[in-house]
């Protein structure tokens, strides 16, 4: 197998790092992170989850908590963790299929969340 | 005769290192300011104001701890000019009779009640006492109702 | 000493498989996730100098950092955005690994380590959100505690161990602070170093 000196890898890592840090700094200078609502203010009628946990909030809205918050996430984690072994049983191409099923489920919930909160505002 | 510039990989990488070191050097001053900031240290809650106040004079700043004082026909009152939204310092504009927050454009009326913007509450009123020599002592740790006067 | 050298040699060997050099193979996503982690560690350390956990002190110190302390706002924004970007890069990294089937033997152990890291990162994100101490964070903490309470027997103890006793108005507690700033980053860092060492042990970054 072809091998290359590590310095070529370090160069590429360095360039990617600089680009990433510049991008991150630009975001930080341009967009201020929110601080939510003061706990001294009158209580808000509707607390929106951060987008990363949006899929959770949607699940909890429509499903009983023990399914939405315990069974469903455990199934997701179990499915992810077992992927290398599931592939052995279901065939080489099933890996991407299983992963895409999981990802698409989360993305659908996320888009659902975004639209719901969009209309709420 | 100047040496011709040779944009070898080595020269570009050396330039990149120079850029990284220069960028790092620029972060020194902000870091020192951030780490040495005393803004969150609890100061004494007591503020003195010794200049004379006229009845129906407008808000006067004590220039300390964001405290402003005012006297009307009912007595002396003190207000803390900290925005109830995110804690920026608000400023009083006597010509408009309004307090304006520079950060998110909250506007308060002359009494410190929010008129517009994201501010949830009125500016806090704090307790005032008078020493025998006439100096006002404002205790910023003791909030009082809006109608309270000395 | 010998083991230390061994570790460094694995992370930085003299030569790597040429496949590891292809940006279009890895898109640098794993490395960028680690870089984001480092940015988070540095900015997080800086934030700790001015942050005080607690029901009302948490939110107040966030306000002080965001609007009063010189450069505090920028450091906080950087911490926030590095965190958001890390969640994105970690997920894309996982997608890339599945796409190139890099979870296959002999790398299945490293896949499991990666899944554990994903869960840690999400939990770090959640505890970071709680530390803002806003009303919304109080609501989130209350929901999390109530969900854990559903687990028969263990639930209440687990909730206390993970979140302390957050009020409905603020998620900022000492317990959450220690998890977010010390315990979880330590575990995540150790797992990450093992993750990188394992890559080289399993033959490096290359198409199988």
Write a brief structural summary.
Helix content of chain A is 71%, strand content 2%. Chain A has helices at residues 6-30, 54-62, 65-81, 83-90, 94-120; one strand at residues 3-5. Chain B has a domain at 46-144: Rieske [2Fe-2S] iron-sulphur domain (Rieske Iron-sulfur Protein).
Describe this structure in words.
The complex is a heterotrimer of chains A (121), B (150) and C (208). Chain A has 121 residues and is an all-alpha fold. The longest helix of chain A is centred in the C-terminal third of the chain and has 27 residues. By secondary structure, chain B is of the alpha+beta class. Chain B is built from 2 helices and 10 strands. Chain B has a 6-stranded antiparallel β-sheet, with no helix packed on it. In chain B, a hairpin with a 5-residue loop joins strand 2 and strand 3. The longest helix of chain B has 18 residues. Chain B is elongated, with a radius of gyration of 25 Å. The mean pLDDT of chain B is 83. With 208 residues, chain C is an all-alpha fold. Chain C is built from 9 helices and 1 strand, in the order αβαααααααα. The two termini of chain C are 33 Å apart. The model of chain C has no long low-confidence stretch (mean pLDDT 89). Chains A and C meet through strand 1, helix 1, helix 3, helix 4 and helix 5 of A and strand 1, helix 3, helix 4, helix 5 and helix 6 of C.
Most extensive chain-chain interface: A-C, 55 and 70 residues
Tell me how many strands of chain B there are: 10
Global morphology of chain B: elongated
Distance between the termini of chain A: 57 Å
β content of chain B, as a range?
25-35%
Question: What is the name of the CATH class of the domain at 46-144 in chain B?
Answer: Mainly Beta
Separate helix tally of chain B: 2
Q: Mind telling me the C-alpha Rg of chain B?
A: 25 Å
Quaternary: heterotrimer
Count of extended strands of chain A: 1
How many alpha or pi helices of chain A?
5
Could you give the order of the helices and strands of chain A?
EHHHHH
Order of strands across the main sheet of chain B: 1-10-9-4-3-2
Features:
heterotrimer; B: 150 residues; alpha+beta; 4-stranded antiparallel beta sheet; 2 helices; 18% helix; C: mainly alpha; Cytochrome Bc1 Complex, Chain C; globular
Helices and strands in order:
The complex is a heterotrimer of chains A (121), B (150) and C (208).
Chain A: E1 3-5, H1 6-30, H2 54-62, H3 65-81, H4 83-90, H5 94-120
Helix pairs in contact in A: 2-3, 2-5, 4-5
Chain B: H1 9-26, H2 28-36, E1 46-49, E2 60-61, E3 67-72, E4 75-80, E5 91-93, E6 98-100, E7 107-108, E8 114-116, E9 125-130, E10 136-144
Antiparallel strand pairs in B: 1-10, 2-3, 3-4, 4-9, 5-6, 6-7, 7-8, 9-10
Chain C: H1 2-11, E1 15-17, H2 23-26, H3 29-48, H4 57-67, H5 72-99, H6 108-131, H7 135-149, H8 155-163, H9 174-201
